[in-house]
Specification:
The complex is a heterodimer of chains A (330) and B (281).
Chain A: E1 4-8, H1 19-34, E2 37-44, H2 48-56, E3 61-66, H3 75-89, E4 93-97, H4 100-113, E5 117-121, E6 123-126, E7 132-138, E8 143-148, E9 155-159, E10 176-179, E11 191-198, E12 211-215, H5 222-225, H6 227-234, E13 238-241, H7 243-247, E14 268-272, H8 278-281, E15 289-294, H9 300-303, E16 307-310, H10 313-329
Parallel strand pairs in A: 1-2, 1-4, 2-3, 3-10, 4-9, 5-9, 12-13, 12-14, 14-15, 15-16
Antiparallel strand pairs in A: 6-7, 7-8
Chain B: E1 2-7, E2 10-12, E3 19-20, E4 25-26, E5 33-35, H1 37-53, E6 55-62, H2 68-77, E7 81-85, H3 95-109, E8 115-119, H4 130-138, E9 142-152, E10 155-162, E11 165-172, E12 175-179, H5 191-199, E13 203-206, E14 226-231, H6 233-236, E15 240-243, H7 246-265, H8 273-280
Parallel strand pairs in B: 1-6, 1-8, 6-7, 7-13, 8-12, 9-12
Antiparallel strand pairs in B: 2-5, 3-4, 9-10, 10-11
Helix pairs in contact in B: 2-5, 3-4
Classes of the chains: A alpha/beta (330), B alpha/beta (281).
The structure holds flavin-adenine dinucleotide (2 copies).
């Protein structure tokens, strides 16, 4: 049997969440190193569109289980199906996007298969011995662990969105499609979806935002603080704040970032006029990339930033807005 | 009357990173531990269910002997009793080993439970895997990231917001939930509560033999995953300092990081009308 690397197709938010495509790209790189094929596993109903998409984004094979009863995501059915398929085809590696669904599905599948699982990886590499080195953050991003699953198969990892670059859509790519009938003996769902509603896109939570623009007391006034909303909008992000800002009523309590508020983990955090008290920073250490702006180069927030801009927060905010407008409009 | 089990992990204090920069390894012993925040929310949810429907709450923790502290805290908040699972052979287990161990303890101590409540994730290794794996071990339905729990007609009615969907779920009894930190703000234990928790609390201590654990499934040796290296990424951070006029700094930011920013916002930022001018020159 061919060695294979599997990617679980998490298509539910196809247009916002590209993690499956990003994983297909990464799987292609890893597969080249161990001589394996890349396979997407698609479970659902009326999913041909996605099957074609995954092939165009690098899946050499697509395993499909299509049935009306899989129309909605079902944790229990999907876990059983993934387990059975993995037992039949014995992939070397299974990668699952770290969406809320993926992070719940993966541990169940790993448990059923009696194998290991690394959570929320930010890096994947092959070692010289052909093992998957899984790189995952812990302690709020303060530490990074490298993890192997040396003896058990498949090696499994969930992977954060936005880490890898997808392969551009290419209609000339070919892939084999393997259709598997729905097993007759799937368990009855003990957990049933009664109602659901898509959250309006604007309502993305601070926790989930890929870009967060955070403002502190150094913004100066409510009026000046408002500029951050314009900046956040241009960056498709959300606005967060420190406690003094919330207390002053420049923004709702909801936006508080810190020990008493929310934890964030954006790909980019802009931090304007924030000193960096531990009650605030403990909640932002998971940000992948921090650009801090402060008049004081010695502020803690500046020390923990990837880019520390010594400047007036307002002026820099205005200059960023202007530049983004130029670049986005052309 | 509902039988509730709350799984609680002791984690390092926010301010104490268990990392030794000199030896560049994880510190073994915590100087000071606390109840994992999300576990506090899970316990609060259990307390509210108990208040509404009547019930009995068992708090379970696995960890070194000092982890008993979180059980006192749980009892002071209103849990009825505590179970500490402690044994050198359990140390260093991954989520597979941890969920196996917790499941054995639940089957022994509270086999007829109606609901197991976990935190959605911990603040130290934050895998969020123990809850779902525990549901598999116990062979009960499970739902993660729950924000509201109601008991209705012999089943649970659950609310959650995941992946941009607001979902209402119905779960058979018995079942398992993991609770987010958005709702069920944990109450503070009262001073009297704390005093009486220490004075006469019901805490049972169990080791691997008591639970008749399979040595091949616990601790470091029973873990499919192996941690081969741990390091501090901030040490590797570059910390580029930029100064000058706002315009100059912004140009520098885009020159160096336009790709990163456009990746995060999903828009192309490379084309700029200044560049276009340069091209047509
Ligand atoms: C129990 C407890 C819980 C708490 N929880 C939270 C929490 O959840 N979240 C939270 O944020 N805080 C929390 N705090 C408060 C926290 O300790 C800090 O007081 C707070 O984070 C500071 O906010 P700040 O950085 O906006 O203000 P400051 O500390 O006042 O910092 C303002 C910064 O702006 C800079 N600055 C001033 N003018 C300019 C300018 N024109 N341009 C650029 N920079 C400028 C200054 O150099 C300074 O660094 C908590 C405190 C306690 C005791
Ligand atoms: C740096 C580092 C990285 C790690 N990465 C991984 C990894 O990728 N994969 C892996 O399998 N293991 C990993 N581990 C091991 C993992 O920390 C342990 O398995 C741990 O016992 C449970 O994982 P967690 O803290 O992530 O729990 P989570 O799954 O995040 O915890 C969720 C809930 O489960 C319950 N719970 C968890 N632990 C206990 C406990 N000891 N007692 C009672 N209830 C508990 C609590 O209700 C908690 O709120 C890592 C450990 C370290 C130190």
């Amino acid at each position: 049997m061919n060695r294979s690397i599997w990617v679980f197709a998490d298509y539910r938010n196809y247009f916002q969440n590209r993690v499956t495509l990003q994983l297909l790209a990464k799987a292609n790189q890893l597969a080249a190193q161990i001589g394996a094929e890349v396979c997407a596993v698609v479970l659902g109903y009326k999913i041909d569109e996605y099957v074609a998409e995954y092939i165009a984004h690098g899946a050499q094979k697509v395993v499909v289980v299509e049935h009306r009863s899989l129309q909605k995501y079902s944790m229990e059915k999907y876990a059983v199906l993934m387990e059975r398929l993995a037992r039949d085809y014995q992939p070397e590696i299974i990668l699952i996007g770290a969406t809320a669904f993926g992070r719940e599905l993966a541990p169940r599948v790993a448990k059923r298969l009696g194998t290991g699982l690394t959570a929320d990886c930010i890096g994947l590499e092959m070692t010289e011995d052909g093992l998957l080195r899984q790189i995952a953050p812990s302690f709020g991003g303060n530490l990074v662990a490298e993890i192997l699953t040396p003896e058990h198969r498949p090696q499994m990892a969930t992977v954060r969105a936005g880490i890898f670059q997808e392969i551009p859509h290419n209609n000339s790519l070919h892939g084999e499609v393997v259709r598997i009938p729905l097993p007759k003996d799937l368990p009855k769902d003990r957990l049933r979806l009664i109602a659901y509603q898509r959250q309006p896109q604007r309502d993305q939570r601070l926790e989930d935002a890929r870009v967060v623009v955070c403002g502190g007391r150094g913004m100066g006034s409510k009026k000046k603080f408002k500029k951050l909303f314009e900046l956040a909008q241009l960056l498709a992000g959300e606005v967060g704040a420190t406690r003094p800002v919330v207390y002053a009523g420049w923004i709702d309590n909801d936006a508080l970032v810190g020990q008493a508020g929310r934890n964030i983990r954006p790909q980019i955090l802009f931090s304007f006029g924030i000193s960096g008290a531990i009650q605030h920073t403990a909640a932002v250490t998971d940000a992948e990339f921090i650009i801090a702006v402060n008049k004081n180069p010695n502020a803690t927030m500046m020390k923990m930033a990837d880019v520390a801009v010594v400047a007036d927060a307002n002026q820099l905010c205005s200059a960023l807005i202007k530049e983004l407008k130029d670049r986005i409009q052309t | 009357m509902l039988k509730l089990v709350v799984c609680i992990k002791q984690v390092p204090m926010v301010s104490e990173l268990p990392w030794d920069p000199n030896t560049r390894t994880l510190k073994r012993n915590l100087a000071e531990g606390m109840m994992n925040p999300a576990c506090g929310h899970a316990l609060e949810a259990a307390l509210q269910i108990k208040k509404q429907h009547g019930g009995h709450i068992v708090a379970i923790t696995m960890g070194p002997p000092m982890a008993e502290e979180v059980l006192y805290e749980a009892i002071a908040m209103g849990a009825d009793r505590g179970v500490l699972l402690t044994d050198r052979s359990m140390a260093g287990g991954d989520t597979s080993a941890t969920s196996y161990t917790l499941a054995r303890a639940i089957k022994k101590e509270c086999p007829d439970f109606d609901l197991v409540l976990c935190g959605c994730y911990t603040s130290d290794s934050e895998t969020a895997q123990v809850g779902p794996q525990l549901a598999e071990e116990l062979d009960v339905p499970g739902a993660a990231y729950i924000e509201h729990i109601a008991v209705k007609d012999g089943a649970f009615r659950l609310h959650r917001v995941t992946d941009n969907f607001l979902e209402v779920l119905e779960m058979d009894m018995p079942g398992l939930v993991t609770v987010t930190t958005h709702t069920y703000m944990p109450r503070y234990p009262s001073l009297e509560g704390l005093q009486s928790a220490f004075a006469r609390s019901d805490i049972k201590i169990l080791n691997a033999r008591d639970l008749r654990l399979d040595p091949a499934k616990i601790g470091v040796n029973g873990s499919p995953t192996k941690i081969i290296n741990v390091y501090s990424p901030t040490a590797a951070k570059k910390n580029i300092v930029m100064q000058g006029t706002a315009k100059k700094v912004v140009d520098e930011i885009f020159a160096k990081f336009a790709d990163r920013i456009s990746g995060a916002i999903g828009k192309d930022l490379k084309t700029h009308y200044h560049d276009n001018k340069a091209c047509t020159k």
